[in-house]
Amino acid sequence: MRFKVKKIKSKSLLADWYITESNAVSEDGYIVNIDHSGNRVAAIIYGPLNIIVVVGKNKIVKTIEEAKKRAREKAAPMNAKSAGYNPPCVTFKRCVNCNNERVCFNFVIIEGQYEKDRMKLLIVNQDLGY
User: pTM of the prediction?
Assistant: First the structure.
């Protein structure tokens, strides 16, 4: 089963279109993501011809520092909990830089794309995800 999932994730890197979400977006233009396996951030960085990142208004913050904090203290614990993991962040509701069954192995900040118009950011005027 694990091999099948990995194969599907790998194939997604060859897609024409990739639709995803993000943990936080700062008003100064940074897109911040924390990922467990890295397939989502890999696709955003390099792979599919077109990327659409969909975020709700609840994920928009003022600065890059607020975006990093939101990803670590809000999104990561909720993602860990929904995936059935129980790292310390689930209990403490904040990152404690643990080394157990964590979901935050990959922390990526997107400042832009080298291919013009490859990525589109769609902001929805409602709360989406966590």
Answer: 0.86
